[in-house]
Every structure is written in C-alpha cells, then in structure tokens.
Fold:
Amino acid sequence: MKRLIIGLSGASGVIYGIRLLEMLRDIPDVETHLIMSRYARLNIEIETELSAKYVESLADEVHSHSNQAASISSGSFKTDGMIIAPCSIKTLSAIAHSSAESLMSRAADVVLKESRRLVLMPREVPLHTGHCKLLYEVSMLGALIAPPMPAFYNHPKTIDDIVNHSVGRVLDLFDIEYSGVKRWHGTSSSSQSVDREKAPEVLVADPDQATS
Ligand SMILES: Cc1cc2nc3c(=O)[nH]c(=O)nc-3n(C[C@H](O)[C@H](O)[C@H](O)COP(=O)(O)O)c2cc1C
Structure:
C-alpha cells in the first residue's frame, strides 16, 4: 500500500496533476491525498474541459488548501511522499523557505523534514537567477525536480503522449509502474550503428551525415 500526496498549484499545466491522479486511480493499493490551490482550480477551467469537481473525484481524500490541521500537515501521518504537478514559482518559493503559508507548502515541508520523497514539476519559462536559486535550494533540501520537459526519443504523436511520458517518469521515482511509458532500450549495438531504416530520426550518430 502506498500513500501519496498530490498537489496542483496555479502554474500552467494542470493536466500533469490531473493525469497523475487518473493514472493512480487505476493502480491498486495507492491512496491519494489531493490539495489544489485557488489558481489550480482556475487553471482547470482555463486550460481543460474538465471541472475541479471531476479532479476531486479522482482522489481518495481531498484537503482544503487552507486547512493546516489536515492529517498531511503532520509528520506522524505516514505517507510515501508528495508530487506537486504543476509547481508554480510561488509554491516553489514557499517550499524553499519553509514558509508553510498554505497546506500545500506545509505538507511539502513535512515530507522533506521526514526524509520522504518530494517531487516538484516546476513550470515557468524563461527562468531568472532567483528562480534558479530556488530550484537549487529545494534540491539541497532533498526535493527532486522533474520539470515537464518532453522527451522525443519515444516519438510522441499527441499531447497526451507527451503528458503521459512526463508523468510516468515521475511515477518511476516512486517505483510505480505505468505501462504508457515507452522506455529507451538502447540501439542494437552502439550509437555508431543506428539502424536508420527502423529509426531514422532517433539518433544522428554522425552529425556530418545529418544534412546528406
Ligand atoms: C493561466 C495562468 C497561467 C499561469 N502560469 C504560471 C506558470 O506557468 N508558472 C508560474 O509560476 N505561475 C503561473 N501563473 C501564476 C500563478 O497562478 C500565481 O503566481 C499564483 O499566485 C500561484 O499560486 P499557487 O502556487 O498558490 O497556486 C499562472 C496563472 C494563470 C492564471
């Protein structure tokens, strides 16, 4: 049995958190605790055809963003960790400074102090030095930073493919297997002898040949 806290903050990309919840709902023996910030709720309306009510229905337990007395506000309530997807710069900053001004940052701080796994999917572009410093600080505190940067070795065809791959790779960090991740298994021998018939755009071993 695993128990995971899923946080959706107000950065663009609420679909990442929603997809996580959808995946976890279909995996037996995983209990999910959901926190959504006010702007995450707004972004669900702006960015998707879904409702906050639907997103809440995916979780085993839903906590109010302002309820500092929730179970997950205490380290004595055991969890396997927390994923914040997407993670806004504001929430990143709150976590870096242990400000615990909301349940989201309090729960993340508890996960860190208990040496449990905290995975952040920050979304902002471009990043200034202050953002980079915050990422460095949370990394030093033990958080894992998994920005939703798409991979292309798996040849995504749809936005769903891109989202599923990023989210599936985050679940890898909790040893939760999601069958939708297309894994890289290497080339047949070495990167110097890629089978160009089978995977013409996978790797360009010799950059000089790329233009030929
Ligand atoms: C449509 C929309 C997109 C946004 N995208 C981002 C984003 O990608 N990254 C970010 O840090 N903030 C973004 N914001 C701003 C945050 O929502 C805002 O800073 C908010 O106060 C974050 O609070 P929260 O972390 O408690 O959700 C966006 C806001 C809106 C309305």
Remarks:
- The chain has two domains: 2-181, 187-212.
- Residues 193-197, 199-212 have pLDDT under 50 and may be disordered.
- Helices lie at 14-25, 38-47, 52-57, 89-96, 103-113, 129-141, 159-172.
